[in-house]
């Protein structure tokens, strides 16, 4: 299995919150004909994806992760919001990345905290 295919399959698993390779491969069955534009000619078996995860070092994906900002730097430039200049008190603005909220919910669950109580 190529690094690209493994990356696509595993990212799909993260986005869809698949917690096992078995459930990931079952979910991929629904997309079988819709992945050709990504170069996926056939779906992986659980054992093939498991072997790829065992045999490919995580540093490969760490390297890809760290290369992404350079690759997309032109699209990630800060956007000037000139229509807001002078209208906002920048000392009172707080920006929160919403992905951290679900991350901490998962962390708290692991620590025994139940937000429903």
From TrEMBL:
InterPro entries reported for this sequence: DUF4372 (IPR025399)
Superkingdom classification of source: Bacteria
A Pfam family: DUF4372
Domain called DUF4372: residue spans: 1-40
UniProt-recorded name of the protein: DUF4372 domain-containing protein
Organism, scientific name: Rhodonellum ikkaensis
């Amino acid at each position: 299995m190529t690094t690209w295919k493994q990356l696509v399959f595993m990212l799909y698993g993260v986005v869809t919150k698949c917690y096992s390779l078995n459930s990931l491969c079952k979910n991929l069955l629904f997309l079988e004909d819709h992945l050709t534009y990504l170069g996926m000619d056939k779906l992986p078996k659980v054992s093939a994806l498991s072997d790829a995860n065992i045999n490919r070092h995580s540093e490969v994906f760490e390297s890809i992760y760290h290369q992404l900002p350079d690759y997309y730097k032109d699209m990630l430039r800060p956007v000037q919001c000139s229509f807001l200049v002078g209208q906002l008190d920048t000392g009172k603005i707080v920006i929160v990345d919403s992905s951290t909220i679900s991350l901490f919910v998962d962390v708290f669950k692991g620590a025994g905290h139940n937000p429903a109580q």
